[in-house]
Design brief:
L,D-transpeptidase catalytic domain-like, elongated, eight-stranded mixed sheet, 235 residues, two-stranded parallel sheet, alpha/beta, 23% strand
Length: 235
């Protein structure tokens, strides 16, 4: 009887071990499949572009577009920020690049010059997250995709992140920073009061643009963007 119990225990232990090993192998296989194929967009070139490079990131579609001379050259599926940690809307540049060891940032990192946080475009050790609103604000790519991008995109490359326009809730003034400042700058530029990038930093150029707009609208040109000025700007 005791021998029978021991044999049964040994049998169940063997089955449990096989199940655990199977789960580990399946997990590794799923990760590999996700990294290699799941997020890939088929039928695209693997040749390096030769013209002027820029990047456009479309948050709602979770797509990164590589542009050559102003035209779409290649597209990549990406993961972007969650609703409580959104990706930074605006116009940035690649500030620096580095190799990674395959940690949470994957194998490559391209830093963006966002003034209010450490944002970048990088790989991931969670390839199943690609295509979702899943990050803390950075742009995630498959490792093989970011490795390709890393070789093609030099430091100084323009990066435009596009997303949903929202109603500005706070008063803005010089030294303010954030996505709402980006929205203000985009509006001022569209109206012809501001030149240059919408970089999310309320600097002297933005201050002067606001004052010119306020003067033209017949209100005190103090450079403070309160609700009255926001309403006139229609934002």
């Amino acid at each position: 009887m005791k021998a029978l119990i021991i044999r049964r225990q040994g049998f169940f232990f063997s089955v449990l071990t096989m199940l655990l090993v199977g789960l580990v192998i399946a997990s590794i296989a799923i990760d590999y499949w996700a990294e290699q194929e799941l997020a890939a967009i088929p039928g695209q070139t693997e040749q390096a572009p030769k013209g002027k490079i820029s990047l456009v990131i479309k948050i709602p579609a979770r797509i990164l577009e590589l542009h050559e001379d102003g035209k779409v050259y290649k597209k990549y599926r990406i993961a972007v920020g969650k609703s409580d940690t959104p990706s930074p809307i605006g116009e940035w540049i690649v500030d620096w690049k580095s190799y990674r060891a395959g940690d949470i940032f994957g194998t490559r990192f391209l830093a963006l010059n966002v003034p209010w946080g450490g944002y970048g475009i990088h790989g991931t050790n969670q390839p199943w997250s690609i295509g979702h609103f899943a990050s803390h604000g950075c742009i995630r790519m498959r490792n093989r995709d970011v490795e390709e991008l890393f070789e093609w995109v030099p430091v100084g490359t323009p990066v435009r992140i596009e997303g949903q326009v929202f109603r500005i809730q706070r008063t803005l003034k010089i030294q303010s920073m954030g996505s709402d400042v980006v929205q203000l700058q985009v509006r001022l530029r569209k109206l012809g009061y501001l030149e240059g990038r919408a970089d999310g930093f309320f600097n002297r150029d933005t201050d002067e643009a606001v004052k010119r707009f306020q003067h033209d609208k017949g209100i005190t040109p103090n450079g403070i963007v309160d609700r009255k000025t926001l309403n006139l700007l229609d934002i």
